[in-house]
Amino acid sequence: MRPNAAETVIQSLIVALLSLMCLSVLYPFLYMLAISLNEGADAAKGGVYLLPRAFTLLNYEIVLGNEVIRHAYLITIARTAAGTVSGLFVTLLVAFGLSYRGLPLRGVILSYILITMLFNGGLVPYYIQLNNLGLLNTFWVYILPGMFSVWNMFVMLKFIQGIPEALIESAEMDGAGPVRVLLQIIIPLSKPMLAALGLFTAVGHWNDWFTGAFFVTDQSLIPVQTFLQQLLAASDISAVLGSNTNQEALARSSQMQNITLMSIKMAVVMVSALPILCVYPFLQKYFVKGVLVGSVKG
Q1: Considering only CA atoms, which of 226, 216, 192, 188 is closest in space to residue 68?
Q2: Do 265 and 241 form a contact (C-beta atoms < 8 A)?
Q3: I need a surface site. Which of 61, 130, 153, 237 has the fewest CB within 10 A?
Q4: d(CA 36, CA 52)
Q5: Which long-range contacts (CB under 8 A, 24 or more apart) does 89-93 make?
Q6: Is the confidence at residue 54, as pLDDT, over 90?
Q7: Helices in 119-255 by DSSP H: which ranges?
Q8: Per-domain residue ranges for the chain?
Q9: At what angle do helices 106-118 and 67-98 cross, to 10 degrees?
């Protein structure tokens, strides 16, 4: 059935509106990419919007050659990997345990967990608690506080409850215990949901600058996003160059006359954003299949 004239007009308007929305999201990214690939002194004159006018890779050479940034990347990668795996593991164990309707005090436990989702003690008590636990200025401050997510737990719980009970009952009749049920039934059937929530968790760890800014003072432990936050507030390019020997050699060269703090900032933004943007499209298909199904079933 062919659409009539009114439907064609409406569809055209929807496509145009969505295209404008996509451009509004894509343009800032393209602008930062153009500035990062352009000589800083030339970009400072203005007029660089979509494509670099004086192409150079020197901004990325400086950023990728900086020892502080490379170490911050390692911290970010380590916390993202460890935080995602541990977070999914702990949250899945809680959701699996609470999925048993015969669990004693199950309703009380769920109500208590829900209260922690709605209310919190605030930043100062949270800081004092981290200090009492000895987590300040340690790598574990990025991992342990985020190992359990209430929202993720409820999504997992609803998904697990949507799995036919006959599968679990037949496995238990064959002598399977809770661990075997979890490993051979729950996890294989929950892969789409785990992939979606895993991506959410990984993005949260990758983009988190707050923890490194407020709970870590050791510069060797800050993640790349915290370094980026410090860089965006900097007013001197020496905050980027530091004392790296190669960068000092660059500073003595005539090329450094074309480098500005803004061009370095844009290069750091691109370097910190590209990895997670490259991973995102490959797991996008799991969102509807995993999170939506897990949220609706019950």
Answers
A1: 226
A2: no
A3: 61
A4: 8
A5: 90/147, 90/148, 91/147, 91/148, 91/149, 91/152, 91/153, 91/156, 91/197, 92/156, 92/182, 92/186, 92/187, 92/190, 92/194, 93/182
A6: no
A7: 123-132, 150-161, 165-173, 178-181, 187-189, 191-207, 210-214, 224-232, 238-241, 245-252
A8: 26-56
A9: 150
Q: Do the Cβ atoms of 54 and 48 come closer than 8 Å?
A: no
Per-residue model confidence (pLDDT) at position 298: 44
Q: How far is the C-alpha of 261 from the C-alpha of 236, rounded, in Å?
A: 7
Tokens of 104: 């004693």
Which residues, listed in sequence order, are joined to residue 38 by a DSSP beta bridge?
55
Residue 54's Cβ-side half-sphere holds a number of Cα atoms within 13 Å equal to 15
Q: Which of 55-69, 85-99, 231-245 has the highest mean pLDDT?
A: 85-99
- Region 228-249: mean pLDDT is 63
Taking a C-beta distance cutoff of 8 angstroms, is the pair 83, 143 a contact?
yes
